[in-house]
Amino acid sequence: MEDIKKMVKQKYGQIALQTKKQNETSCCGEGGSCSGVDYTIFSEDYKNLKGYNPDADLGLGCGLPTQFAEIHEGDTVIDLGSGAGNDCFIARELTGAEGTVIGIDMTEAMIEKANENTKKLGFTNVHFRMGDIEKMPVTANKADVVISNCVLNLVPDKEQAFAEIYRVLKQDGHFSISDVVLQGSLPEPLIEAAEMYSGCVTGAIQKEEYIHIIRNAGFSNIQIQKEKEIHIPDEILLNYLNEQELKDFRGSGTGIFSITVYAKKSACGCAEC
User: Fold this and answer.
1) 3, 49, 111, 253: which has the highest count of C-beta atoms within 10 A?
2) Which domains, ranges and CATH numbers included, belong to the chain?
3) What sign does the dihedral 155-182-250-227 (CA atoms) show?
4) Separation of CA 187 from chain center
5) What are the strands of the beta sheet with 143-149, ordered from one edge?
6) Which residues contact residue 81 at a Cβ distance below 8 angstroms, ignoring those fewer than 6 apart?
7) CA-CA distance, 72 to 160, in Å (whole number)?
8) Which residues touch 182 (CB under 8 Å, ≥6 apart)?
9) Does this model's pTM top 0.90?
């Protein structure tokens, strides 16, 4: 697990130094191993959302969790894997000056970039903390809302990550998380490719397992707010698969999906509430 974290941290440290255009033209925003393929594979367009700041948009998300997160004025919001601050700044537009937004990221270069962007914007209620999602530097019962955008698929221990989300949420708090999940099995060469892990693919788990982990963590009212299938172009897959493996994969029925999922922290601490 530590090796995976080191690899992800290194890759996203490189990404922090790139532009959005560079990230969109590499493998899943992964940092260059598929460079030259001009596709925006996962990311969605933020430009029409209030609070959008282009300096904070590295093109790394797979959804728009803030659009579905039911954030209200005065809320405390925690963003997991906050990157350069994109979702935090949109959340701050919704919480207003009376709210608080906390971004957590384990990559030093991302924290530095987010702090630079915050200083430019003059916000005093948006804060970024260096930390691990599986052990957040946040006290219990802190947040009204937790958001995250295409990050938990990179976390090795997803059970612990959702246990931490439960811990930091207030009673009756909720999360809205965009992430990548699978239906069906990936080919072995993709599973073994480190670049595809940090590119948001091979760290993904089965959709049913993802929902099961959320339920087991004690959350209730679990809803899929949005779902879309992700098509990875042949040009990228051929960096890892031969022609026959690609043909078999295309015919296997395996699907890669971006989902935005909502769940609430149950008052009784059990999913049956």
Assistant:
1) 111
2) 2-265 (3.40.50.150)
3) negative
4) 23
5) 126-130, 100-105, 76-80, 143-149, 169-183, 255-265, 219-230
6) 104, 105, 133, 148, 149, 150, 151, 152, 154
7) 27
8) 204, 205, 206, 207, 254, 255, 256, 257
9) no
Quick: pLDDT tens for 147-204.
999 999 889 899 999 999 999 999 999 999 999 999 998 888 888 775 665 556 767 8
For 254-266, letters b (16+ CB in 10 Å) and e give eebbbbbbbbbbb
The pair of three-digit structure tokens given for residue 39, joined into one six-digit string: 């596709």
Measuring CA to CA, how many Å separate 59 from each of 55, 56, 83, 194?
A: 11, 9, 10, 20
Q: What is the pLDDT of residue 160?
A: 97
* 105 DSSP β-pair partners: 130
Of 208 and 189, the one with more pLDDT: 208
CA atoms in the 13 A half-sphere facing the CB of 197: 20
What stretch of H or E contains 182?
strand 169-183
102-132 residue pLDDT tens = 999 999 999 999 999 999 999 999 999 999 9
The string over 206-220, giving b where at least 16 C-beta atoms fall within 10 Å of a residue's C-beta and e elsewhere, is ebeebbebbbebbbb
